[in-house]
Amino acid sequence: MHVLGALLALFLLVLTLYEIYLRSLASFKAATHFPGHTVYPIIQNLFTALFKNQTGSFAQARRWAHEFNGRTYRLLIRGVLFVQAIHHRDVEMLLSSSRLITKSPIYKLTYPFIGNGLLNSTGEKWHQRRKILTPTFHFNILQSFLQTFHDECRKLVTQLDEDAGKGLTTALQPLSTKVTLNTICETAMGFKLDTMALAELYKNNIREVGRIVQQRLMNPLLFEDWIYKAFGYRAHLDKILEPVHAFTNSIIRQRRDIFHATVPNVDSLSEENIYTNIKQRYAMLDSLLLAEAKQQIDAEGIREEVDTFTFEGHDTTGSAFVFTFLLIAHHQDVQQRLFDELQSIIDSNRSNPDDPLTLQDYNNFKYMERVIKESLRIYPPVPFISRLVTEDVRYDGKFIPKGSFMNVEIYDLHRDPEQFPDPERFDPDRFLPEQIERRSPYAYVPFSAGPRNCIGE
Predict the structure, then answer these.
(1) CB 318 within 8 A of CB 173
(2) What are the phi and psi torsion angles at 429 (to 5°)?
(3) 0.70 exceeded by the pTM?
């Protein structure tokens, strides 16, 4: 039995090496079109690129961008070509394509939590989900949630004032997470998270899920599902996800009852009156429930999209919140200009300065808009995105074989000195109209770009 086991192990090893060899033939040829480090036999660039913690991986990617002088570079791992796109020409080829829209297998790490919804799906399923969810961002719906944004901002300012009055230092990350999670739950699912009995458990488990996904991303040995299960990691994740999914499903059931009580005849709803005929405030979940009633999505699909929006919507926005505050705090001149713009808008054409700001007021915050865009340039909350190359690609004399990964390193893309002179300098006026016109539209992509850009942009 021992001999048989050894032979089986040897056979599997040889089979794996042969598979890597076959994949490597096309990848080696394509790799010559991009700069990169020495590719060693068998291990290739495995140890160069992986087996690091989050901080180490982030720092190394920045060193590579500097070492290769802003040119898109490559890695070879297990016979697979990884193209790290940091030049806008390469990014444009990928993101402008209507065919290269499939996320890379890296995203499978989020499947246990958010499933194969809008973030992870591809092809016809992705197109259908996008079509279902697009009405959620109708102007009238966004306008109806202005009160939610104001309420959460008041809570934030009250907390900051209380901490300052006590001489306390405020940790922004947990506070921003609370604000954005409360906001996304009310706008996406139609309920106030702080009023729910299990809200704190839900928040804690959501944070823990994010930590576990990051941990797995940093350890390539855990990419294989059977290894992840064998060492008990999946069982731990499932235990945390059980109350999260139960909580989401209970909210969906409650909202479904309200929806059908309010809209007894879904066939009578049209694109024109869907935003005005519902007595309850319209939420993203209502778009999904309407699609369910029309048999365009099932209950599991609804949960996928709710969990996707809740997780992706609050985490990225919370990070952007912290980065923007950090930059404003370090640039007092910017802070003063923001204050002056706010004061000017409050003083103009308003009988009572204590009246809440309107959508028109927000449209007049031109400098604030530039500040936010420049913050997203310097510190994009999602520093890279990854696609699977699903067909052979040739462009600009380069070749990328089917099965390769193409990663857009947004953090480095946003630091191209040809597109953004003195790129580390915080300068909101980079986003004046005349400055935007001189740049490639693919030099700045905090929400991705092209046909698969972020629906929440």
Answers:
(1) yes
(2) -70, 0
(3) yes
